[in-house]
């Protein structure tokens, strides 16, 4: 492994572990539950992550342009992803495993080249250029937080304690 990328690899590995943990013990009823009619479900989020993780693998592996950022997304490819939580989670797991394996084998120069190829002239928030490995980690971390929130709300609406609640003295006891 390129030592310059060790922290990037560890960040992605940690984010994946947290997402995987956030989905453990998922009840069937939680998969398509939503707190509001217009809110995302865990099923939708996992499908979305599966699609985008495939794109990240393609970009890191071959320098393919990143759909929705550098090129238009191919709707037919998106529509081909079923709304099957189990299948999508299995595929997401495989894509993330491949992404992590690629991070173990690329060099910093190659990651920078593949990122430039993936994002073309597209820039990120406030003009910062994307780096594939950071983009993937931030994207998955954001949706992991969404999933944890949905799962907490699901339990609370059933009179159960939140599954994910920090034991942290900065949270006042009256808010528990």
Word description of this protein:
It is globular, with a radius of gyration of 18 Å. The model has no long low-confidence stretch (mean pLDDT 89). By secondary structure, it is mainly alpha-helical. The chain has a single domain (3-175), classed as dinb family like domain (Four Helix Bundle (Hemerythrin (Met), subunit A)). The chain is built from seven helices and no strands.
Give keywords:
176 residues, 7 helices, globular, 60% helix, single chain, 0% strand, mainly alpha, Four Helix Bundle (Hemerythrin (Met), subunit A)
Quick description:
The chain has helices at 6-22, 28-31, 42-62, 75-79, 85-105, 108-119, 132-156. The protein is built from 7 helices and no strands.
Topology:
Elements (H helix, E strand, L loop, with lengths): L5 H17 L5 H4 L10 H21 L12 H5 L5 H21 L2 H12 L12 H25 L20
Helix pairs in contact: 1-5, 1-7, 3-5, 3-6, 3-7
Q: Whole-number radius of gyration?
A: 18 Å
Q: Please report the first level of CATH classification, the CATH class.
A: Mainly Alpha
Beta-strand share of residues: under 5%
Q: Any guess at the CATH architecture?
A: Up-down Bundle
CATH H level, superfamily name:
dinb family like domain
Question: Per the principal axes of the C-alpha atoms, what is the gross shape?
Answer: globular
Structural class by secondary-structure content: mainly alpha
User: How far from one another are the termini?
Assistant: 44 Å
Number of domains: 1
Count of β-strands: 0
| Sequence of secondary-structure elements | HHHHHHH
- Could you tell me the CATH topology label: Four Helix Bundle (Hemerythrin (Met), subunit A)
Number of contiguous helices: 7
Mean pLDDT metric: 89
Q: Could you describe the largest sheet, including whether it forms a barrel?
A: none
């Amino acid at each position: 492994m390129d030592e310059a990328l060790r922290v990037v690899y560890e960040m992605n590995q940690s984010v994946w572990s947290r997402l995987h943990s956030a989905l453990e013990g998922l009840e069937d009823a939680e998969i398509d539950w939503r707190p509001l009619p217009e809110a995302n479900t865990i099923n939708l989020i996992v499908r979305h992550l599966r699609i985008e993780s495939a794109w990240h693998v393609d970009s890191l592996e071959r320098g393919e342009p990143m759909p929705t950022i550098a090129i238009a997304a191919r709707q037919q490819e998106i529509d081909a992803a079923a709304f099957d939580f189990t299948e999508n989670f299995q595929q997401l797991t495989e894509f993330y495993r491949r992404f992590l394996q690629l991070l173990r084998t690329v060099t910093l120069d190659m990651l920078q080249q593949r990122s430039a190829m993936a994002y073309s002239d597209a820039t990120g928030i406030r003009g910062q250029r994307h780096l594939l490995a950071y983009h993937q980690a931030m994207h998955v971390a954001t949706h992991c937080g969404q999933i944890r929130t949905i799962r907490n709300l699901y339990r609370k609406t059933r009179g159960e304690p939140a599954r994910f609640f920090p034991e942290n003295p900065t949270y006042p006891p009256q808010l528990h």
